[in-house]
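Entry 14. Structure prediction run on the chain below.
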Amino acid sequence: MTSRPFRTMTVLTAAAALCATASITSTAYAAQDTNRRVPGIVSAWARAWNGTDPQALGALFTARGTYTDEAVGITFRGRKEIAGWKARADTLIDNVHVTIRAAHREGDRITVRAVYSGHLKGAPKPFAVPMTTLLGLDKNHCRIASDQDHYSLATVLTQSGLPADWTPPAS
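Output returned:
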């Protein structure tokens, strides 16, 4: 079992590294037309979605951060709820994956174009749908203060071979 001080130091070190990466990447990203690098926070966000540790997603957010999935009409508040949303997604969707297509940063806002894909458990087919995510950053541009995911749930269900009125099983 990891000691609390050691775990705290690990989290603080990771946060500092993330902030440094976000700052370096943001500077490099400012020349968008000549350098199409994705901001560090966006890469970390995609890695967290593509990974298996729900806490990794929650850790990218501010303590009061919000995550809104517009397709299902639900908002999660705080790191614990956000990590819980990732954990729930992992129980419902095999191979959940986010593929970044483009990102545009303007001040403390980032617009991400991506493909959201996976295979709903029990569905006959996998899905891959376009998604737009709006990220609001904290004042230091190191953490996500807000996330709004926009994609078509109807398209996810259609591609998956499920009826339009399908709802996930209760957890």
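The longest helix spans residues 4-29.
Filed with the rest of this week's runs.
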